[in-house]
Structures
1.
Amino acid sequence: MPLRVFVAGATGVVGRHLLPELRRAGHHVTALARREDTAAGLRGVDGVVVADMMDPGALRRVVTEAAPDVVVHQASAFSDTDANAGMQRTARLRETGSRHLVEAAIEAGARRVVVQSMADAYVPNGHDVLDEEAPLWTEAPGYWGELVRSVAAMEETVLTHAEIDGVALRYGALYGPGTEYASDGSMHRRVCGSALPLVEDGIGLMSFTHVDDAAGAVLEVLDGVEPGAYNVVDNEPAESSEWLPTYARMGGGPAPLTLTPEQARAQLDWLTVHQLTEQRGATNFRFRETAGWRPVWPSWREGFAALFDLWPG
């Protein structure tokens, strides 16, 4: 059944892939942009509105006018140039901006809110691949801890509000066209510039999510799927010793250098060391069983190959 869908973060990496899929599915789509200049680039939707999610009055006005059945939140504020500033901005958007969006959705009569969350925010736990029952690492240090706490607050707002059905989609590391893993992205520059090494005995697990699969997951949960949090990741969590050399080779970069744990802690920022050595991957079992979702790219190996035009077809 066609729905009226309001998309915040329409100009982001997931939003750009999501909008045409929503239209192909027959839904009426209103896209939110934060600025007039970015709004001008949005095409193929039924309506484009401009408002800042940190401005509750303006946000409430445009959401009410759109009269959506479902509100989708895919907005973030990460930056290629300053990772810490991007995490801080995104934390404010996740916590305060999400609260404003939920309040606006309720006032507009929407029955469901779908938000973008994170599958890499779990408390590290041995060698386990984690499901949605694992706790989020709200005690993590620094800007990462600030971001995880904002995600926990956002999920609590969305998943516990009695007046809406809330769904939190916990993506893994987003890759694909327009992301930091693309050939013009920051991850590609780091890897090809030998700025992202391996760490001896590093067992950090990364779960990946192609942007096509992130957009497809939103389509799956617009209606009918039980409210809750779902890991939206591929089928193959990968240790840094697997995915990093593979990405470097496919992306045309040199083989990564290898550091000892002591060298890594001295030369790299805390978050990078955490990701390479102790971060845990996530399982998509609940989402597969509940929604019947299957990733278009079941493994990051095929997804990386497609990203660099090495995949047949």
2.
Amino acid sequence: MTPSFDFLADDQASIDTLLHDVCEQAIDLLAGMPSRPVAGGISPAAPDDTGNGARAALADFTARYSAGLAASAGPRYFGFVTGGVTPAALIGDWLASVIDQNATGSADSNAGALELETLARFRDMLGLPDAFNGAFVSGATMANFVGLATGRQWLGAQAGVDVAEAGVAALGPVRVLSAGAHSSTVKSLAMLGLGRQSLQRVAALPNREAIDVAALTEALAGAPGPCIVVANAGTVNTCDFDDLNAIAALKDRFDFWLHVDAAFAGIAAASKRYRPRLAGWEAADSITVDCHKWLNVPYDSAVALTRHLPLQAEVFRNQAAYLRGEIEPGNFLQLTPENSRRLRALPAWFALRAYGRAGMAAIVERNCDQARWLGERIAGESRLRLLAPVTLNGFCFAPVEGDAAALLARINASGEVFMTPTVLFGQNAIRGAISNWSTTPADMDRVWAAIEGALLG
């Protein structure tokens, strides 16, 4: 008979050495990040036994999974819009796990005060007025969900209906207008019961992803009643911006809820060079800004901002005798979809406290310069076609001849860089975004060499 052994008690007794070992492994991982293949995907070996303690679990993870994980925190991962992790944000994230707060804003902790301070620092960095309050959520999808849910409640108020109480059926058909709403917005419409078909695509400007304001004006004039407008501040393919000033001006003529999806490009407001592109977003009713993108904090983190906190609370309030029921900034239990939420604000607090607006502006401007550098080389290569001007930190291109998917596969197979496929203006293409604080000119040279090598087949 195998003797019983309390592995949990043993792990607790040796927690200092376990954490030291993990720290050493993390240091090695971070040190090797610039040289390891950017994309992983190695299939793990067969699983080992379970129930034999944390040290055995760490060894099993290291042997079977570690090498196959993507180096998405590294300097040449250009897939999606993925930031890295600054040292300060990493400290904050580790402490968030150690402290292990259920950050609802309850009276037993000052976690709510920390989140409010983080939101104030965030607002200040972005140049937004104090009228905006909000909360940390898991990512842009949930931030868009929160903004649109609050917009849905506003639509109900215009019709004399409390949608949160009566249900979405009492609201009737809803119209959501946008030129290029992100897929997370479409997903949110499905989750909210508004339906994907509630989205009406408005024409974009020629060879742009930005909305044609004249077409939006016409759509608003033809709407049967109040509606929701989703404006983009940074599209995924070309980093294009809707004219937020012009859209905001339409609120003088039409009744609509303005939601600005600034998932990654909202952070560009930290830079004086790029803040003018977001002019007008202060008139929005709700705003999405991601943190695990350009703020370079660990997944998962985003901020949902609104000027209509009471409406947001009508949607998300949670009534129970043992819970605080006040509707106020800081009582996040009443403002977010989650009843339980980690102290997501702490990594962002560390990043904002450590580097401030100037530090974030430097990251933004450096990444944009790197994207422009790459765009110039793509434009100068006769075998490639740059499909849109590089105006921020993203780029989009295709081969003049041949299949974009095949070229992308060769580029990614190099292990030097990872980018993703897309379709732009009806053409299959390759896109990427540079959002990592640690990307260097040497990394950009390696990326360009990988693209040139892939062109040779």
